[in-house]
Structures are given as structure tokens and as C-alpha cells.
Amino acid sequence: MLRSPLIATGEVKDASLPALCLLRALHALARHWHTLYRAACLPDHRPLVPNSEFINAKLAAKANRQLQDPLVIMTGNLPPWLRKIAYACPFVLPFECRHLLFYVVSFDRDRALQRLLEAGGERGAAAADERVAPRLDRRKRTVQRHSVLRQAEHVMHEFAHTKALLEIQYENEVGTGLGPTLEFYALVSQELQRADLDLWHGSENFKQKPASFGGEIVKSQPPVVTDRSSSDAAARLASSVRDALSLDEERPPHPPQPSEHEKETSVPSAAPDAAYVSWPCGLFPQAVGRNARASHLSRVKAKFRFLGKFMAKAVMDSRMVDIPLSVSMYRWLVSEQRWLGLSDVRHVAPELWRSLCRLRRVAERARHIAADARHTPEQRAHLINALELDGCPIEELGLDFILPGDGCTELRRGGRDLPVTAHNLHNYISLVTHWLLYEGVVKQMEAFREGFESVFPLANLKIFYPEELEQVFCGSPSGGRDQRWDPRMLAECIRPDHGYNAESRAIRMLVDILASYSREEQRLFLQFVTGSPRLPTGGFKALNPPLTVVRKSLESSLDPDEYLPSVMTCVNYLKLPDYSSAEVMRAKLRLAASEGQHSFHLS
């Protein structure tokens, strides 16, 4: 970051280059400071200076004027300096500006214009009416719900590389257009998280071992060791280590295959459905060892190749996927895999990271002793051998050079028979980190890159930071489990029509109900109304068309409390009866959102 030139030598001569070079160095230091201070085990790695402080308001305004002019996009007259500065110094432009620029430089002009109109809402639509509208070729395909993942692979193989806008319809359902297509991306996203596919770190935990793993090597609260019971406590600590690693004393050459019954075993409080992998820190590929079966590796690579095509096509068509990936995987997508280290393990396996940090403190003490010239070699060896973790010698922890939680992937040749001691503990930590984040996943990520680049170059994503890629692929951040929608924002974004206005009792009740929704209730409501459980980047304000709520027409003799709301997902249109109370409306919305999924029929 500090050594590489800002741009190619002699390509641009401008008085601002020295200032931009200095800003980039300062931004890199503020962002990656923890790599310079052995701070991999600190819980907080936020930038020393917020990214927003580096944004240049004048430059951003100038860039927005260029990008928001449809004629500039359609004629291809975007100034070359804009792309160069955005990729060399992305920190000087806000995310929204870079997001639009990404579409301009990555795809055809009609798609870029379509993205501009979607981002501009009604103002963008008016501009299109006055000037020029995009002309996108559309390809419609019909799929069956019961085998959506297999059929999605065929669809992507056929259409991912084309410029056509993909639209999905379901067999024996009349619905077509935006709603079914968004639901298709959401359904495939969910299927890709199935534990039996063995794609994601910790998949085995969700299939057969409800109370084990979590990535922990050493328990957070180890047993207290006293002189009287030191051997028993050491045995208990060593046993807890092996249990946390999900390893047996005698390891088979290959991990046992779970039975059909084990595949259905539920994992308490781990995921809504036991068949799917879900980690709070996001998903990261499961490491595959050198001795993995060729058939297994080929199947895993094929799935990651499809995942690359799937995510790239979703971005190309301005669709959203619902795959919560880890920040560490996003770092691979912007070519930062060389910088992955111990601090990134916390974004893959937090418990494993905490355990490695505790072991690292012992390893650091061993390094200090080894470098102390005041002792003889024999004294240094004795002092290092005497090092303990919570009263237990390192040798008695029962660790060897096997990837934690795997049981068959050797970190080095002969690692199965090589015990971890205080002398090689630092090497063990380095190898675990390297195999978990790089060596064990490099084949999967190469397959992902191959699939992705069949649609458009992966390098185009370098205009974003890794933590911003969730917005690029998945839309607006879902927030925490307890994050609520703001009532004022809802009132501004909901468009009442055909029987309702902003002051209608039903609209006020709807706003209050939506503002009280939990994260899961929000996802159900969005899936019901729009076809996707996520909002686009920008939230409700960026929903296009905006959420429109109309009064559901019923005969005067009929009781509205007996009827459910219905939706037109293609235009984000909610038909809401005029219920008698907020309690009735809440119950009917909950019933419609939970029971009215996965079907598109005429109401």
C-alpha cells in the first residue's frame, strides 16, 4: 500500500499527485495500524481516523454531477480521471458515488443508465422520460421450486455470461417479473448455505455435533489448577481441548460421513433450520486438506464456481443475494488475501481466535526466553519447557499439527504425529492461521474467481472496501437483531394511495407495527412484499418502485377483519384492508407474511 505507485509512471502529470500519495499513505496507516503493533489479539481494530474524514466534498460533488447525467453515460463521455482516482484513492469518494461509478465502468451503458434511474427514483424516471431510456434485452426462464439449486446451476451456466437481464418464473405459477426473480436469488442463496454441501467453515457442527466445536481450542474459563490436584486438572483441561476441537484419540484417514439421521439433527440456538450453516460473523469456506478425496474437491470447486457466477450475475442485474459472507472472504474478493493474519480469524471463528490469542501469549513468552542471552541454552530450554497455560504444560494439552475442528488436515508433513510444545507453539499458531484463511481455501477461491470472471472482472470490485461489499451484493445492511425501523423514515417512504392518505388510521397503525418489528419479522415482511428479505442499498428510500399501500376493495357487507392483505411484488404494492384495530392488523400481517411465501398467483 505504501510502496506501490499511485498510477503508472508518466500516465498523469498533475499537481495534486503528491497530496493524493500522502493521503493514501495516511489512510493506509489509519486503516491497517494494528498490523504494525502486534495487535492481532486486540478486540477493536477500527480505523484510527474514520473513512468519512478522507472524503473530499468538492471532488465528490464534481463526480456526482458527471455520473448523474444520463447523456454523459449514454455517450461514454465520462472523464478518464474519475475512474483513475476512484480506483487509486477510493477513500476520497463516498460509497454511493463509487457504487454508481462501478456500474458505469463494469457494464454496458444501458445497465449503467438503468442503475442511475433506480438510484434516482422518481427524479431519475422523469429524466429518462425527457431524454433516453435504457433498452435491456430480457430472458425469461421457468424453474421448479423443489430443485431450485440444481436448476439455478443450469440457468447460470446458460445465461450468466450474457448481457441479457434474467427473469424467473416458477412452474405452475402465473407470477412473473421482479418479485419472482428476487425471490429466486433469495431461495438459491439459502440453498447454498445447506450444511450437507460442506462448503462453509463449521458445516459439520450443524450436521451432527450440537454442543461441540465453535472453533475453541482452550476453554474461556479453564479449571483452576492446585498443587494437590494438578494432574487431574491438567487431564481435564487436555480433555476439554480435544472436545473443543471435535477430535478423537484415533483419527480415521477421512472424516466419517454423517448418516441421514445425523444430517437432520438440530443444532440448538445455532440456526433457524438445522440444515443450514449460520454464524454471527458470516460464512467462510471450509478448509480442504491435501489428502481430500478428488471427487469431494471437484464437487466443492464446482459449487464455488457456480457461486461466483451467481453473485456476479446478481450484481450485474442489480439483484440482491442473501448470503452473509465473512469480511475475511470479502478480503479475498479485493485481492487482500496476502494480508490475512491472526486478527482475521475472529471474522471466521471467534472462539478459535480467542484460543489462539491465549496460546500466542505463551508463545511470546517462549520467544523472549529464547532471545535472552543471560541464560545458557540448557537453562533457556528448561524455562521454555516449564511454560504453562492456566497451570497446564503445553505438552499436556494434547495438541498436534492438525487443523482444529477438522481431524484429518495436517498442517505440515507428519503433523499427525508431531505434538505441540512450547518450543513450536508459535509455528503451530502461524500454520493454523495460514491453513484456515489461505492454504485450505485457495482452490475454492480460485474456482470462485473463475466463475465470477466469466461475467465481469473481479478486479472491478477494488473500488470498494471489504466491509462495503455486503452492500454491493446483499443490499442495505441488515443491522443487529434488535435494530428497529425508524417510524419517521417509514412515514416518509411509504406511499399511500387509492383509499388511503398519510393521515389514514390504517397507515399510522401500519407504521407503528413495522417500527416494532424484530429483524426476523422485518425479513419476513420484506420477503412477502418485495420478494427479497433484504432492502436495496440505501434502505426503504432506495426501493424502486417505492412501497405503495392501498386500501383493499371489499363489498360493504364484508368484514375487513376476515381478510388477509395481498401484494404485487413486481411493483412493491401492498393491498391492506382497513382493519378495526392494530392488534388485528398485526396478526393478519404476520399470518400473510409467514404463510404467504413461495407462491405467485393472481389474487
Overview in brief:
This protein has 603 residues and is mostly helical. It has helices at 17-31, 57-67, 70-75, 80-88, 95-106, 109-130, 148-159, 178-191, 203-207, 230-245, 260-263, 294-316, 327-333, 342-345, 350-370, 377-385, 425-439, 442-453, 469-474, 487-493, 505-515, 519-530, 582-595; strands spanning 138-143, 165-170, 388-389, 392-393, 495-497, 548-551, 566-568, 573-576. The chain has a 4-stranded mixed beta sheet with strand order 5-6-8-7. Strands 1-2 form a two-stranded parallel ribbon. A two-stranded antiparallel ribbon has the order 3-4.
Walk me through the structure.
The chain has 603 residues and is mainly alpha-helical. It has helices at 17-31, 57-67, 70-75, 80-88, 95-106, 109-130, 148-159, 178-191, 203-207, 230-245, 260-263, 294-316, 327-333, 342-345, 350-370, 377-385, 425-439, 442-453, 469-474, 487-493, 505-515, 519-530, 582-595; strands at 138-143, 165-170, 388-389, 392-393, 495-497, 548-551, 566-568, 573-576. The strands form 3 sheets. A 4-stranded mixed β-sheet has the order 5-6-8-7. Strands 1-2 form a two-stranded parallel ribbon. A two-stranded antiparallel ribbon has the order 3-4. Helix 7 (148-159) links the parallel strand 1 and strand 2 (165-170). Mean pLDDT is 83; it is low at 122-130, 209-231 and 233-274. It is an enzyme of class 2 (transferase). This is E3 ubiquitin-protein ligase. Residues 248-265 have a biased composition (Basic and acidic residues).
